[in-house]
Amino acid sequence: MKRPVPTAAAALATKLRAGPDGFIRLQIDERDWIGLAMGCAQGLQDLLALWVDDDAAHMGLGVPALKLRIIVSVPLKRGSFPSVAKNHPAACRLERSIRDLHGVEPKGLPDQRNCMDHGKWPSPPPSLKKDAARRDAAYAFLATEGEGLHQIAVGPVHAGIIEPGHFRFSVNGEAVVRLEERFGYTHKGIAALCKGADIATAARIAARISGDSTVAYSYAYALAIEAALKWRPPPRAILLRGIMAEFERLSPHVNDVGAICNDASVVVLHAHCTLLREDILRTANQCFGHRMMMDRIVPGGVAADLSAAGAEAIQALLARCATNFEAVVRVYDEAPSLQDRTVSTGNVSAELARRFGAGGHVGRASGRAFDTRLNFPYGPYEALDFAMALHAGGDVDARVWVRIEEVRSSMALIRQMLKLLVPGPLMSVMPRARASEGAAMVEGFRGDIFVTVRLDDRARLVNFYARDPSCFQWPLLEAAIEGNIVADFPLCNKSFNCSYSGHDM
């Protein structure tokens, strides 16, 4: 009799208990691992993350409708595990990174090209096993065939302060036939830096994974550590974390709306949004002591309080935002020249967003109803009232409107949390160290961030892994630009605003 392949729903039926972090953990064999990968491709569950340690490969899975999260593990055999990407393309970049950084082979990986290793490292990365051979760094972009086709190479160095990434366009006249991206130029060795570090040191490293999401990464790391140690932060700290998280969401969303308008040649809206963003950052500095609120969320609580004067400053900022941002929205909505550039440009189908598990504004603009704050709620969001910003257009315009609605939502959430703030401690006492593990998901402005940690009995990190939402979004940018003209790429790219640094960790 053929054994049924366990799906996420079947795991629920077994009534296995989730750990303190909300994840059910299962040890499975290779056959079931392959079955779950096929289930991801079929939409039975979402791929949340994929990573390896010394002995096993691990896959994070989610069924948002059931508020169910699972981590399944399969033992490594002779330094390999069955490729998830063979059946589920969304895993391809994750597996290519695993191969480059750990020397572990995903058996059946369809794309054998390097991902992080450009052949420029002076020595193998610390995470790479000593007996693992480094592969030839020669990189071959996919060939295109057809009459009148030519290629345009852009990057890896770009104007301004943007981080490096290479874009290779295959075009027919002005129409883009194919886009390929190559990254890895900003690889920082985050996992290797965290290995063996104490909790406080690793917290500072996590906060620097992606500078515009420093609060979100600190938040996710803190929740993972707290789950591992059964460490509960005080109520005031939980609310302050939420205020900082929504503050961080405001700044890039406002900036991106302006930048998209700028790429559509409406420079005045970009100027207004730049001023508004600066107002937000200055208020953050005034209230929390740092423009980006870096290192303010730490395991066990927060490292900065909000004074009564700070709360008043935030309320005043929100009043200014409500007026100034809505003025920008009115112009955007009523400008035919803007609508001509954004509507029907850079489409991502609902099916493609689902297959890749795209989160954040990219997924929600294509009708994927997923927001970690609502689907897998964490403090303080379980107690807050808000709705998901959801559109079905899948184009640049839809991604703009998701941002607009999330700006409005973040302002309302901050007001709610300010009303709920009561006096109290900012930190709780760390429990006694023990060998343990924990995972967490947090909604950053780009989408869901996944972090998992494993600790030894001295509270030092044995393993650290983080997955940025951009890992599932960059491939969709390749699809979104197909059929559009080259001149619309900056518009499409900015409407995604994926992270180079988050991808190259």
Give the arrangement of secondary structure elements.
Layout: H1 8-13, E1 23-27, H2 30-42, E2 46-52, E3 56-63, E4 68-75, E5 80-82, H3 92-102, E6 105-107, E7 149-154, E8 166-172, E9 175-182, H4 190-194, H5 199-206, H6 214-229, H7 235-263, H8 267-288, E10 297-298, E11 301-302, H9 308-334, H10 336-342, H11 350-355, H12 360-364, H13 372-375, H14 396-420, E12 436-443, E13 448-455, E14 461-467, H15 470-481, H16 489-496, H17 500-503
Parallel strand pairs: 1-4, 5-6
Antiparallel strand pairs: 2-3, 3-4, 7-8, 8-9, 10-11, 12-13, 13-14
Molecular structure report:
- The protein starts with 7 loop residues before the first helix and ends with a helix.
- The chain has two domains: 9-107, Beta Polymerase, domain 2; 190-503, Orthogonal Bundle (Cytochrome-c3 Hydrogenase, chain B), CATH 1.10.645.10.
- By secondary structure, the protein is of the alpha+beta class.
- Helix 3 (92-102) links the parallel strand 5 (80-82) and strand 6 (105-107).
- The protein has a four-stranded mixed sheet.
- Mean pLDDT is 93; it is low at 1-5.
- Helices cover 41% and strands 16% of the residues.
Q: Hey, roughly how much beta strand do the residues contain?
A: 15-25%
Number of domains: 2
Poorly predicted tracts of residues:
1-5
- The overall pLDDT average reads 93
Helix content: 40-55%
User: What do we call the CATH homologous superfamily of the largest domain?
Assistant: Cytochrome-c3 Hydrogenase, chain B
Largest sheet: 4 strands, mixed
Q: Under the CATH scheme, which architecture of the largest domain would be assigned?
A: Orthogonal Bundle
Q: Which structural class do the helices and strands define?
A: alpha+beta
Rg, alpha carbons = 22 Å
Q: Could you tell me how far the N terminus lies from the C terminus, measured between alpha carbons in angstroms?
A: 45 Å
The number of helical elements comes to 17
* CATH class label of the largest domain: Mainly Alpha
| Silhouette | globular
The CATH topology annotation of the largest domain reads as Cytochrome-c3 Hydrogenase, chain B
Strand order of the largest sheet: 1-4-3-2
Count of beta strands: 14
